[in-house]
Amino acid sequence: MRFIIVTGLSGAGKTEATRSLEDMGYFCVDNLPPKLIPKFAEACVQSQGKIDKVALVIDIRGGIFFDDLFESLNYLKKQDFKYEILFLDASDEILVKRFKESRRSHPLAPGSRVITGINEERNRLREVKDRADIIIDTSKYAIRDLREEMNKNYGDMKQPEKQLSITVLSFGFKYGIPVDSDLVFDVRFIPNPFYIPELKPFSGSDEPVRKYVLDQEETKGFVKRAEDMLDFLIPNYKREGKRQLIISVGCTGGRHRSVAIANEIYNKLLARNYNVSVEHRDIVEDVHQGAKKL
């Protein structure tokens, strides 16, 4: 089990760091009273491997309960329970700026100057910072930079391509464009197997239709250009911290051309070891509509 305690200064980026950990599959709990850490750790162990990545956000919002943190950490150490401390920090100037931009008061100085609360918080967190395994100074970080740093320290760097989840989705325009699409390709310019009687009953997942669609010169040119575009876009999406990419491929009914091409794009991305899946939204819907007309 990887058990991470996320702490640090208010305004230093704990919320965004926690979101990054959630995207990496960590079970995250925010503002857990430190006294409950040992009980929570024991519950995770008893899950028999079902919970193997955990992140707890512990900070001064816990008030007087925060003082129990070191007692709980010492208990875990005596029990030989391995944990890591991630401490997020930033300069006073940046923290003050962030509080002013968000129009929030500091939790330790609700009726006073923000810098007063920051100074008090630094004093209270000095010991836990000294014990931290990783310290990240977010003063000059954009959100994407923090995500990259979190991925570097806590992601699966043996398979970096799998940090972005990609779905290739075929659909029919007559049933509407999928609302969660990031990229939409219209392949209605390709000759339609629907008008060939011996191909009409099949779908793009069946070999006769697949071969017919992929053998078209228009298809070969499109797939090559789409492949080049995705080779350019995907690394840039990843650098921006994007976690999910929906690539929608549409034809008229969503049964023939879009299905065959979506499968082909899926295979191309799979060969590059991306975390990719393929779905065919309207492959059955189009059959039902045809049956109703008959």
Automatic annotation (TrEMBL):
Which NCBIfam families does the protein's record reference?
PRK05416.1
Species for this entry: Clostridium sartagoforme AAU1
Keyword match Nucleotide-binding:
yes
Residue intervals of the RapZ C-terminal domain? 165-283
Taxonomic lineage of the native organism: Bacteria, Bacillati, Bacillota, Clostridia, Eubacteriales
Sample GO molecular function, one term: ATP binding
Binding-site residues, ATP: G8, L9, S10, G11, A12, G13, K14, T15
Q: What is this protein called?
A: GlmZ(SRNA)-inactivating NTPase
Q: Which HAMAP family match?
A: RapZ_like (MF_00636)
Q: What Pfam family is a match, any one?
A: PapZ_C
Keywords from the UniProt entry: ATP-binding, GTP-binding, Nucleotide-binding
Q: Could you tell me which residue ranges the RapZ-like N-terminal domain spans? A: 1-154
Binding residues for GTP: D59, I60, R61, G62
